[in-house]
Amino acid sequence: MNEQILINVTPFETRVAIVEQGTVQEIQLERSNQRGNVGNIYLGKVSRVLPGMQSAFIDIGLERAAFIHLADLRENRVSRQNDNVQVQIEKVLFEGQTLLVQVIKDAVGTKGARVSNQISIAGRSLVYLPHEPHIGISQKIDSEEEREKLKQRVQNLMSPDEKGGYIIRTQAGWSTDEELKNDQEYLSLRWQKIIDGMKRHGAPAMLYEDLTLAQRVLRDFANENTLSIEIDSRTVTQSLKQWAEIYTPAVADKINHYTGPRALFDLANVEEEIQAALSRRVELKSGGYLIFDHNEALTSIDVNTGGYVGYRNFNDTIFKTNLEASLAIARQLRLRNTGGIIIIDFIDMDNAEHQEAVLDELTKALARDRTHTTVNGFSSLGLVEMTRKRTRDSLHHLLCEPCPTCQTRGNILTARTVCYNIMREILREAKQFNPKEFRLIVSPHVIDLLLDEESAFLAMLDEFIGKPISLEVDNNYSQEMYDIILI
């Protein structure tokens, strides 16, 4: 499939769009002052051990302490493999202990970063595991013959005294022995620098920082299907070409400096796709639509037929809409980088074959996702439950912030409700204090209601408390904001 990679570079932000057949399939974003920490390796210090949760907090020098669970400890994994016995975290970690850890999930909301002491360093074709003396293979390489062949090739390139092991990435299938050897040497050098850093620095300290977004794109996304990599910065183009010639020579010739008259992201309407990915509602070509609702626990997606009436048979109309929605959902999850638990409410289908076809279409569309996904079948309530691995922040979390008006509720109090809250509060304060006058400062919508439909109740309140109530409008106030001043 023809693929083009567009890299838009500014001093403050780098944005990447993966375009297939003229359609944006994935968006990556990294800000200079907000770079994620996934992949970074730190020398940390255990600040607190929680036996009841079988976890611990690790100070790695970030704003919030990192979090490590027993399942992410190398010692527990080794114990379960050898003795099938789960160790206790309090017997492995203690307060004040220094520990080499790697961030596996960025901090999200109030939660600190999640870390592991099972270190891995990724190259283009291989992932080095300094503490794991075995060779694993990407699950995307499903041919048993190919898996054995790749495993043997990597073993032959390893020196007899070499420590650690490797995970063979999908890219290794197109790599020569020389490229695999170069990858091994690069990873060995990176690990040695980390070892040297442990000797020089005290905890907490960062010993290894993951590649920039542009470099990760060349390492992870560019492949034989990539037609070109267009970059709108001459400096970044030159530096990436030099980097690619060393680490990803197969794609070095595909890197071009874009000098066209139009903005780079206008070529495939990327800006419009970003805005659409931030929207709650996503339109389908048939006239149906999707509704995305995000919260900290999960993401829910509701499928609706909308104005689609393409078939006389109602069941066929529903089936067609759900099939189209399956493709759109898979693409939107990539664009939005949505992770965690995802609940999909397809339009109810009575036909079991239709349900199976929709599920197959969704699974097939998700197979193109570079992020690991797991899909369960339809539940008894007709919902599809799935998970998508969450590593970095979603596009929504990177570009948006909580609404100051509704405080993330997704709705605000009506003007009438605010009017009644104000009158109740005046009544309470009139019982406690004895001012000469109550002055209200409110928003335009609320003052209109107080002077019109609610004026009779306001007059009754004025008479009941025996104090004048004056009104003042502030155009900068949101609908829920008001002040009651006692004069």
From TrEMBL:
Residues of the S1 motif domain: 39-124
InterPro entries in the record: NA-bd_OB-fold, RNA-bd_AU-1/RNase_E/G, RNase_E/G, S1_domain
GO cellular component term of the entry, any: cytoplasm
Keywords: Hydrolase, Magnesium, Metal-binding, RNA-binding
Major enzyme class: hydrolase
Listed cofactors: Mg(2+)
Example of a GO MF term: hydrolase activity
Gene Ontology BP term (one): rRNA processing
EC id: 3.1.26.-
Annotated SUPFAM superfamilies: Nucleic acid-binding proteins (SSF50249)
Pfam families registered for this protein in UniProt: RNase_E_G
Cross-referenced NCBIfam families: PRK11712.1, RNaseEG
Entry protein name: Ribonuclease G
The organism's taxonomic lineage, starting at the top: Bacteria, Pseudomonadati, Pseudomonadota, Betaproteobacteria, Burkholderiales
Gene encoding the protein: rng
